[in-house]
Design a protein that fits this description.
globular; 4-stranded antiparallel sheet; 8-stranded mixed sheet; alpha+beta; disordered C terminus; single chain
C-alpha cells in the first residue's frame, strides 16, 4: 500500500513537535515560538527588476506542450486553466478542508499524525529544520482517509471520504497527463519511461494529499506560514483558495507572488522531475505567507513514482557532453534523505561530473540544488 511504503521513509527519522500545540485561531499576540525575524526581507525583490508574472497556460492550447516545457525550465511553476477539473469538485474539496480545520483542537488531535507517520493532522515536518514554528496547520491523506475521518467525525465521516476519493481520482488523471506533456517537451516518449504501462499510465504511482491551513495572524510581518522549500515530488498540483499567500523564488528578482486565479491550478516541478530531466527543469523553491485578517486554505496533490522505481536522469537526456547529474534513487529513499538532510538532500545524490565530460555552462538549472 502507498501509505505503508511512504510511511517507511519517515520511520528512521521521526518528527517530534518541539513545542506545545497552540490554537492559532485564538491567539491575540504572536508568541515567541512563532516569531521569525524579517521574513519579508529574505531574498526581497530586487530594485529595478522587471518582475514577470508566473506563466498561465491553457491546457487546450495547441502549443500547450511547448509552453509547459518552457515554463518548467524557466520558472519551475505555472498556472493551469481549462484543466477539466470541475468547479464543483474544487469547491467541495475546499469546503471539506475548511470544515476540517474549523473543528476544536482536541478533536483534530484525535487524528494526529504519529512521529514516524505520514498521514493525519499536524504541523509541517520541515518544522524541525527551523528554530521557529510556522503559522499553519496541516492534514495529510495517503490512500484512504477513513481511519482519521472516523476520529474527526465519528457519526458523519463518509462525505469527507467520498470527496477525497473523487478528488484523488481526478488529480491522478491530470498528473499523468501533465507528466507526459512535461516529458514530451524534452523529446521523451513512452518507450523511454520503463515504469509506464502500454497505455502510458503510471500504474503503481504514489501520491499524497496535503491540506494546508493558515489562520489570520496578529503579526504577519514576523510570521511564516510555510518556510521556503522544494517539493520531493515529480510534480505537485496545488489548489489555492482566493486568498493570496504563495510565493516563489525567481532568480534575480527575489520572491514573486503567485496570485490566486479563479479556477486555475498551480503546477510545481518537484525534485524528482529535476532529476529525471537531468537538471533541465527547475525544482521551484516556494513559501507561504500569512495575513492579518483572512484565513487561507490550500490543497496540494503530491505526485510521485512507484515507491520501488529507481529515479535517475533519463538516458535520452544524457550523452558525452551532458553526463548524468544524479545517482538513481527511489522516492521512498529520497523522502528519507529529505527528512534527514532537508535542503541538502538533492546535493547528497548529486554525482561528480566525469573528467571526460562537461556541463553546458549556459544551463544554470544543472547546478541547482534543493
Amino acid at each position: 500500500m502507498p501509505s505503508k511504503l511512504l510511511s517507511q521513509a519517515f520511520r528512521s527519522h521521526p518528527f517530534h513537535h518541539p513545542h506545545k500545540n497552540l490554537d492559532l485561531n485564538s491567539i491575540k499576540e504572536l508568541p515567541d515560538s512563532h516569531a521569525w525575524t524579517s521574513v519579508r526581507d529574505e531574498h526581497h525583490s530586487v530594485e529595478g527588476c522587471n518582475v514577470e508574472l508566473v506563466p498561465i497556460i491553457d491546457l487546450n492550447n495547441k502549443n500547450a506542450m511547448e509552453l509547459i516545457g518552457h515554463a518548467s525550465k524557466t520558472w519551475g511553476i505555472f498556472q493551469l486553466v481549462n484543466h477539466n477539473i470541475s468547479k464543483s469538485l474544487l469547491e467541495d474539496i475546499e469546503l471539506a478542508g475548511k470544515r476540517l480545520f474549523s473543528l476544536p483542537m482536541q478533536q483534530k488531535f484525535k487524528a494526529g499524525r504519529s512521529p514516524d507517520g505520514a498521514s493525519g493532522y499536524g504541523v509541517a515536518r520541515i518544522s524541525s529544520f527551523f528554530p521557529k514554528l510556522m503559522w499553519s496547520e496541516g492534514f495529510t491523506v495517503i490512500g484512504s482517509p477513513l481511519e482519521h475521518a472516523r476520529q474527526l467525525w465519528p457519526q458523519d465521516f463518509q462525505n469527507f471520504c467520498d470527496i477525497i476519493e473523487d478528488y484523488q481520482k481526478e488529480m491522478k488523471k491530470l498528473a499523468g497527463k501533465l507528466m507526459w506533456l512535461m516529458l514530451g517537451s524534452l523529446g521523451i516518449n513512452e518507450e523511454d519511461v520503463k515504469w509506464a504501462d502500454n497505455n502510458g499510465e503510471f500504474e503503481g504511482g504514489c501520491a499524497a494529499l496535503q491540506f494546508n491551513y493558515y489562520p489570520a495572524c496578529p503579526d504577519p510581518e514576523r510570521a511564516m506560514g510555510l518556510a521556503p522549500h522544494t517539493d520531493s515530488t515529480i510534480l505537485t498540483i496545488l489548489h489555492q483558495s482566493n486568498i493570496s499567500g504563495l510565493q516563489v523564488l525567481r532568480e534575480g528578482c527575489g520572491w514573486v507572488t503567485v496570485p490566486p486565479l479563479p479556477g486555475a491550478l498551480v503546477i510545481h516541478v518537484g525534485d524528482l522531475l529535476h532529476i529525471l530531466s537531468n537538471g533541465l527543469y527547475t525544482n521551484v523553491r516556494h513559501r507561504a505567507m500569512v495575513n492579518r485578517t483572512q484565513h487561507r486554505l490550500s490543497l496540494a496533490y503530491l505526485y510521485g513514482p512507484p515507491s520501488t522505481v529507481k529515479i535517475s536522469p533519463l538516458p535520452k537526456l544524457v550523452d558525452h557532453f551532458h553526463p548524468p547529474l544524479y545517482r538513481p534513487i527511489t522516492w521512498s529513499e529520497y523522502l528519507g534523505t529529505k527528512a534527514k538532510h532537508f535542503d541538502k538532500a538533492l546535493k547528497s545524490v548529486r554525482l561528480c561530473v566525469p573528467r571526460n565530460g562537461f556541463i553546458d555552462t549556459n544551463d544554470q538549472n544543472s547546478v541547482q540544488v534543493g
